[in-house]
Amino acid sequence: MTVHRTGIGNRLLAALPPADLGLLTPYFQKVSFEPDAILVRSGDELDPVYFPHSGAIAFMIDMPDGQTVATTLMGREGALASFSVLGPSLSSVTAIARIAGTASLISAAKFRAAFAQSAAIRNVVQVHARALLLQLQHVAACNALHRVDGRMARWLLQLHDRVPDDRLPVTHEALAQLLGVRRTTVTLTMSKLREAGAVPSDRRGFVEIHRARLEKVACDCYALMQRKIDQMYCQELAAPQPVDAPSRESAIVAGDESRAASRAGK
């Protein structure tokens, strides 16, 4: 990873009042991560805590036979290893960067100290924890009930939510790991998506998507899950502001919604 100067692009941090954010910023170190970088291994201690500003991180379950499957995907809306506030503990998943990005990291001990002092920090952590649990529940149901093409469309849409354009830097191998299937299954499924016009191009490690058509292929899990999570964040992550000052979180959400609307119109 490469170290950079700190900045704020993370939705949880953006929701904090300045005084509460000030409990964290002196200890932040901003880093960049590349695709396939392992940020936390299963069995490692949850330390440090990462607040992504960009990119996408997948939580992977490693099976005894060598297979993997993703349980959640996290970007700038989350915090990796935030559960360390419960005390020193080991990770139950391997966190792998699927799309390159940046993050602010802080030691688990410093984060626990700030968590103990700030009701606002405790609030963003519990909102994030409930959003993560909601995603876990939907992904578990989706994996059990829905076909591979619908599930792949869901993962592609989730990745698309975390990149600035319609070309996703993701390989067939990465998709196979997300889905818990063989690469041949990914190749066959990608062919179906191309026939449906949902994936105009798929080569050289990039998947170009047509979002509106991909949404038609995706199972209902994506829209239902995102609607619930967006509602939760909008209602519960608004940081206290002076009466005449705009909410930073509202501006972030509005920007996200504007980008989503422009994509849907393509």
Taken from the alpha-carbon principal axes, the silhouette is: globular
CATH T-level topology of the largest domain: Jelly Rolls
Count of distinct strands = 11
Task: Quote the distance from N terminus to C terminus.
Answer: 35 Å
SSE series = EHHEEEEEEEHHHEHHEEHHH
How does the major sheet shape up?
4 strands, antiparallel
Q: Which regions are unreliable across 5 or more consecutive residues at pLDDT < 50? A: 1-7, 239-255, 257-266
How much of the sequence lies in strands comes to 15-25%
- Name the CATH homologous superfamily of the largest domain: Jelly Rolls
What is the number of helices?
Answer: 10
Instruction: Output the CATH class name of the largest domain.
Output: Mainly Beta
- What do the pLDDT scores average to? 87
CATH architecture of the largest domain: Sandwich
Structural class: alpha+beta
Rounded to an integer in angstroms, the radius of gyration calculated over CA atoms is 18 Å
Query: In percent, how helical is the residue content?
Result: 40-55%
Strand order of the largest sheet: 1-2-8-4
Number of domains: 2
How does this model look, in words?
It comes from Bradyrhizobium barranii subsp. apii. Keywords: DNA-binding, Transcription, Transcription regulation. One of its GO terms (cellular component) is cytosol. This is Crp/Fnr family transcriptional regulator. InterPro entries: cNMP-bd_dom, cNMP-bd_dom_sf, Env_Response_Regulators, HTH_CRP, RmlC-like_jellyroll, WH-like_DNA-bd_sf, WH_DNA-bd_sf. Mean pLDDT is 87; it is low at 1-7, 239-255 and 257-266. This protein has helices spanning 11-14, 18-21, 108-117, 119-145, 148-160, 172-179, 183-195, 211-217, 221-236, 248-264; strands at 2-4, 29-33, 38-40, 49-52, 56-62, 68-74, 94-99, 101-106, 167-168, 201-203, 206-208. It contains ten helices and eleven strands. Helices cover 45% and strands 18% of the residues. The chain has two domains: 2-142 and 221-264, Jelly Rolls; 147-217, Arc Repressor Mutant, subunit A (Orthogonal Bundle), CATH 1.10.10.10. Helix 6 (172-179) crosses helix 7. With 266 residues, the chain is α+β, with helices and mostly antiparallel strands. A four-stranded antiparallel sheet has the order 1-2-8-4. Strands 3-7-5-6 form a four-stranded antiparallel sheet. Strands 9-11-10 form a three-stranded antiparallel sheet, with helices on one face.
